[in-house]
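Exam review. A common question shows you a sequence with its structure tokens and asks you to describe the fold in words. Practice with the pair below. Do the first one on your own.
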Amino acid sequence: MPIVSSDIKLYHAAVEDDSSSNGGTITANEITDNVVNNLFPNFSADEAVSGKTRYRKYFVKNTHATLTYYAVKAWIDTFTPSTDTDIFVALGTPIDTQAEAIGYSFVQPNAKTHPDALNPGDIIAGDSFSIWIKIVLQSGASAYTEDYGRMKHEGETAA
């Protein structure tokens, strides 16, 4: 039986805050899809005035018992609707933290075929890869209800 969407799960990183230790290893805490603030908190009014950059790391795990998820790609499927925020992504490592991620080259791929689409390669059964998301709120930003972005991940599977 091939890999199905329920075999690919998203997990939180060990630390999720605005400190240099943000990120780290994978947890057993699955991310609930289509839930507001499932990864990032809202920006405060003070942050909207001064501007703010936030980073969050999450993991994509192949939970299939035996099959490899081949030629995986990841990209930003939905960009933030606010004109005052920008979203960027970068591949992480199994253990990196925000202290390291700040120095990564973040990109804005908008399709699987985009030259900057993240390419973690093949993900064997039980393995995972991590993605860093960077959100930049411009100073003087207007209030925006439910500002969000959405990632997409796709790969190939054996029949």
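Now try the second one, then compare your answer with the model answer below.
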Amino acid sequence: MNREPTVFIVDDDDAVVRSLTAVVELIGLKVKSFASGNEFLKNYKSTGPACLILDVIMPQMSGLELQKHLAAAGIVLPTILISGHSDVRTAVEAMKLGAIELLEKPFSMQELCDIIQKAIRLDEEKWRLSEQKIKADRSIENLTPAERKVMDLVIAGKTNKIIAAELNLSIRAVEDRRARMMRKLKVKSRAELLELVMAAQFPSNALPRLNDFPAEFQRLLRDSNNERGKLAIDEHISKNELLQTELAPTPD
């Protein structure tokens, strides 16, 4: 299902909001702006891939406080923080709360454009993996306990002969269960099976990182040389030559 990406802007400075909105619209993305963290929390709805551009210092609720509210509510958005004068402590706390970038004014609009597109791609991957997880979970739930045992041993790299010995079955019985399991899951190889199980292991509502998965699955995925299963985000985003202006620093 195709969903239109959205860039959310939370900043109490109208001039900054107008500048950021112009940039987002120029690169063809939908934008919604809010003057405060409270306004954003009251109106935010998750409808598809998105990212959040957030001012660090605002009245009533700071950018970091808004991040904490989002984390407490289980809302995961790639967040870009902007500030007129940041420090190491702020940067560390922001990253711990899930920010992917802290930009200090003045910064290049080109730099912001690239980071926005990276953030959107990251969230698009999150949505893709979440949808794959739902499908994978449903498929695995259709397996019988006996087929599930065979699946687990196949994932572990066991041969039919070893599986037969461990389950006290004939090799033919293992072959039959394995074939039924593969048909139900609609996979044709161990590599495809690994990809499906990895999809089921993906943490719900989380930004995709290979380290989110159990170490054994990480090793098995690498061993399978299955490129489709690797959670890489393309860093080489095309440049927009029109965006060469700078956002002037404004008092926070």
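Model answer, second protein: The first helix runs from residue 14 to 26. The longest strand covers residues 50-55. Full marks require stating both points clearly.
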